[in-house]
Structures are given as structure tokens and as C-alpha cells.
Design brief:
Elements lengths: L1 H13 L23 H5 L23 H9 L4 H36 L9 H31 L2 H40 L3 E3 L6 E3 L4 H8 L2 H41 L3 H71 L3 H14 L1
Antiparallel strand pairs: 1-2
Helix pairs in contact: 4-8, 5-6
Length: 358
């Protein structure tokens, strides 16, 4: 960080091209180059606001150049320029959100310190007696828990439930004693803090703790401090730029409305123009519906053709099965005819063979 700060100081004194050769061609500055600080070109760099304070952001790693800043301000409004502004506002919003959370925590801390404890503080004798009672109750609770476990093991459910109820009452009494002791301790701490410290308040700008009714010199020193001035400048810039951007958007919207109104008036104006607009919109909707119906008819036709093609395939499969059955039937008939055409000698020999078998 120290090296960067020293380099920036040398750049301001001797120029960014202090190490360039005399014959070297120097590149002209361009605000779109990534080496330049976007925040410095838009408004200011937040890294320069909190130097040597608790909110120090360190040295900025980018280059701060007034010439580039002038180029940025003279440039026409573009999308990239709007992005630079949006990024600066986003960074400011993030820092303001952090300090607002700090302010809220500081207020809660003061409320806790200024809150009145419940009841007067206990004396040392009362505190010792309270501790002894807590210890005795803890021993009784432990013994009753063991007896309840033994009764549950024996199967005596009623006795176990009664012991558990008694344990619950003793636990409540123990918690009350502990709470009373804690309240007494907090009461003594609060009284001691109130006696040692003065009444404080939180600065609504930077979140620092201030003494109520402090000397004017100390108040002026705080208001002129880097941290307070930095957050004040940050808040002021964010509010001004946000309001300016909102007004710009409203102006653009107003111009768009006027342009639309002029277009309607140029087409005839008045109610007649509105009626023509409605008629044109109705014709457009009717045309869209007709196109949708045509697409539906085309889809229906394509589905029907697909079904027809599927039915033709089924009919082809049926015809092929019929041909297979006809061929099989022809083969059976041929085998039967061949059997019938066998020679008489073969038939007689088969009959004799059958007789011998029987």
C-alpha cells in the first residue's frame, strides 16, 4: 500500500509517463481503460476519504487522473458511462449500509447500559446463601432422578412420575435463584458503569460515541474529523446523485408520454385516433387467432396423415401374414398329395410291416 501511495504521489508531481523514454510514443488517455479509477471519474474515490482512520480502506489500486476525469465528464451518455455511475452508487450504498448497522448496534448498546436492572443488588451474605441453596437443590434433583430411574426399572410407574414432577418443581426453583443472582450481578455492574461513565450518544452520521453536553471544542473536533466528514460527503453525494438520476428518469418518461401523444394526434387525434388504435389492435388479434387456427388445422392434418400411414403399415403386415398362411397351407397340401401318390408296392409293404408289428 505504501508503494502505491508513493507511486500516485510521483504521478501527481511528475506525470504518469515519468519513466518513459523521450522518443517513445505516448498513448493518449482514454477514460474507458481499466487502469483508471471509476469512482474518481464519477465523483470522488472513497479510498481518499478515510485515510488514517478506523474506516481506512487503504490506497486505491487505480490511477486518479484529472485529465481522464474531464474526458469522462465531457463524454456523451453511453451505457458504459451509466454503468460507472451505477457502480459508484452501489459502493456508496454498501458503505452507508455498514455504518447504519454500526449506528444501530451502538444505540442498542447504550439502551442496554441505561436500562434499569430488576430489583436491588444482593449483599455478599445473601449471595452466599443463594449459592448454597442452588447447590442443595442440585443435589436433591440428582438424588430424585436416581430414585425415579430405580422406580422405573422396578416397574413402579406412578412413583417414577411423582418423583419426576418433584424434580421439575425443584428445577424451576433453582432457575429462579440463579436468575435472581444474575440480576443482582448485572445491577451492581450497571451501577458501577453509571458511576464511572458519563451519558453517551451515537453520532447519526459516522456512528461514533459522543458525550452528551461535551465541550464545544471537542464537538467541533469531531465534526471536522476525517471519518465524520468522509461519511457526510459520502451520504451527500449518494443522495444528490440518486435524486438527479430519479429526476432524469422522470424526465425521460415524460418525454416518452409526450411523444406518444404527438403520434396519436398526428394520426387524427382525439377519440377517433383511440378508436382506430383499438380497431387496429382488434384486427391484429383476429389475424393472430386466424393464424393459430391455421396452425391447428395443419397439425390435425399432419396427425391424420401420420395415422393413415400407420394404418397402411398395419394393412401391409396383415397381407404379409395372409400370404404366409397361404404358403403354409399350400405346402401342407403338397405333402398330402405326395403321400397319396406313393406306389402300390410301397403301400403293400407298409401294410405287411404293420401286420408283423401287431
Amino acid at each position: 500500500m505504501a508503494v502505491l501511495a508513493a507511486a500516485q504521489l510521483l504521478d501527481e508531481l511528475m506525470g504518469r509517463h515519468r519513466n518513459s523514454n523521450p522518443n517513445e510514443k505516448i498513448k493518449k488517455p482514454n477514460w474507458e481503460d481499466p487502469e483508471y479509477c471509476k469512482y474518481y471519474m464519477v465523483k470522488f474515490c472513497p479510498h481518499d476519504l478515510f485515510v488514517n482512520t478506523r474506516a481506512d480502506l487503504g490506497a486505491c489500486p487505480k490511477v486518479h487522473d484529472d485529465e481522464v476525469k474531464d474526458l469522462f465528464e465531457r463524454a456523451d451518455s453511453t451505457y458504459k458511462k451509466a454503468q460507472y455511475v451505477e457502480e459508484f452508487l452501489r459502493f456508496c450504498r454498501h458503505m452507508i449500509g455498514d455504518v447504519e448497522r454500526k449506528i444501530q448496534k451502538g444505540k442498542q448498546r447504550l439502551e442496554l447500559m441505561n436500562s434499569k436492572p430488576e430489583g436491588p443488588p444482593m449483599t455478599p451474605a445473601q449471595t452466599e446463601k443463594n449459592q448454597e441453596q442452588v447447590k442443595l437443590l442440585a443435589e436433591k434433583i440428582t438424588g430424585l432422578m436416581q430414585e425415579a430411574e430405580e422406580a422405573g426399572t422396578r416397574g413402579d410407574v406412578e412413583q417414577a412420575q411423582g418423583l419426576m414432577k418433584l424434580c421439575d418443581r425443584l428445577k424451576e426453583e433453582k432457575e429462579q435463584l440463579i436468575k435472581q443472582q444474575e440480576n443482582s450481578h448485572w445491577s451492581m455492574t450497571a451501577e458501577l458503569a453509571a458511576a464511572q461513565e458519563k451519558q453517551m450518544e451515537v453520532c447519526p452520521v459516522c456512528g461514533a460515541f459522543l458525550i452528551v453536553g461535551d465541550a464545544q471544542q471537542r464537538i467541533d473536533d469531531h465534526l471536522s474529523g476525517k471519518q465524520h466528514v468522509g461519511y457526510f460527503k459520502l451520504r451527500q453525494a449518494y443522495e444528490e446523485m440518486s435524486e438527479a438520476r430519479e429526476k432524469e428518469q422522470q424526465e425521460k418518461e415524460r418525454k416518452r408520454r409526450e411523444e406518444r401523444e404527438r403520434e396519436r394526434n398526428s394520426r387524427g387525434g382525439g377519440l377517433g385516433s383511440d378508436r382506430r388504435d383499438r380497431e387496429r389492435m382488434e384486427r391484429d388479434r383476429e389475424r393472430d387467432r386466424e393464424r393459430e387456427r391455421d396452425r391447428d388445422r395443419e397439425r390435425h392434418r399432419s396427425n391424420r396423415d401420420e395415422k393413415d400411414r400407420g394404418g397402411e403399415k398395419d394393412r401391409d403386415r396383415d397381407r404379409e401374414r395372409d400370404r404366409d398362411r397361404d404358403r403354409e397351407r399350400d405346402r401342407d397340401r403338397d405333402r398330402k398329395h405326395r403321400k397319396e401318390r406313393r406306389s402300390p408296392h410301397e403301400r403293400s409293404r407298409r401294410r405287411s410291416r404293420d401286420r408283423d408289428r401287431h
